[in-house]
Amino acid sequence: MQAITRRLGHQSLRPTASISSIKSIYPLSDHYYGSDHSRYGSTLASHKGMGHLVRKGTGGRSSVSGIIATVFGATGFLGRYLVQQLAKMGSQVLVPFRGSEDNPRHLKLMGDLGQIVPMKYDPRDENSIKAVMAKANVVINLIGREYETRNFSFEEVNHFMAEQLAVIAKEHGGIMRFIQVSCLGSSLSSPSRFLRAKAAGEEAVLKELPEATVMKPAVMIGTEDRIMNRWAHFAKKYSFLPLIGGGSTKIQPVYVVDVASAIVAALKDDGSSMGNVYELGGPDIYTVHELAELMYETIREWPRYVNVPLPIAKAISMPREVLLKKVPFPLPNPDIFNLDQIHAFTTDNVVSENALTFMDLGIVPHKLKGYPVEYLIQYRKGGPQFGSTVSEKVNPDSYP
């Protein structure tokens, strides 16, 4: 009996075939990344043009893609669609969150068992950021906010946090891809503080990591969006919709699923997207008034507008900005009358003429009229089955 036990003990110490296969998929390193160890230089440049990051496999959520991605801001609007697309191809996704443990729980169902890993962190604690980034080889920054709060300013959220992530990713030494999601129209000369902070964040990331990829999506449309949902809710509650400045500003809204697909396409390529800036706009250009007409058509209500001149709109939204940090309690978040968004809508926001777009990533963006806005049927007076607004037949097989 003792001989059998000794023989089994010696066999248990030998590397099995399964462990060898795991090592071939995940090469183990003797270096441990932490705050007490030496810092490494960025390896992004050495990976450019070195082949595809995604490894071949059986495909599907139970395969192994080779991507271990830390997605900052994954609990937001774009985050859920990006995590879903990463998870369905067999990637492991680390989800940093700073609120309740219930915030990321809807993401855990998108991947195979143990592939979606929520990790609590503090964006102001460098060590906690290093901890959620330690095992990753891809970092995607989706952090952004279009209004200020008492705790976080435009500059801290959209500029300094992005710069901090780039610095830590550079020191990491094992990050193969860094993707910064900015905003279409970001410029240091913009009248909007949000767009100026986004532009400063882009410059800071590219200064630290010249091989990073920057995605600049236009106004995103989807089930949880912050534009058409707010319009429909306001129109149902007050029976009219305010059009700031007459709604003549031109925008190029994009379906959120297409933006997530663009990010995944950049990860799948051979490194040709590294160091590039992509402007992601939809196939059609709308004025704000025309987009509101599409919203009214979908919810089956008669369009009723109130034209609000820019000076009056700014006066309505000014009290929150003045009192934000002067009162001892948090103020409501702005919906329609957001002073910074009013400044942003004073100029047209469309894709530049010579910019890299969806086409350069091999993606054809979807038209908004049809399935992408069908989520608005929840606002119909007669219920979701009160008619149909799909004017173009969409082939389910061609839809992601």
Automatic annotation (TrEMBL):
Pfam families per UniProt: Epimerase
GO cellular component terms given for this protein: mitochondrion
Domain NAD-dependent epimerase/dehydratase, residue spans: 70-281
Lineage top rank: taxon: Eukaryota
Coiled coil start-end: none
Originating organism: Gossypium stocksii
SUPFAM superfamilies xref list: NAD(P)-binding Rossmann-fold domains
Name of the featured protein: NAD-dependent epimerase/dehydratase domain-containing protein
Gene Ontology MF terms in the entry: protein-containing complex binding
Annotated InterPro entries: ComplexI_NDUFA9_subunit, Epimerase_deHydtase, NAD(P)-bd_dom_sf
Gene3D superfamilies from the UniProt entry: NAD(P)-binding Rossmann-like Domain
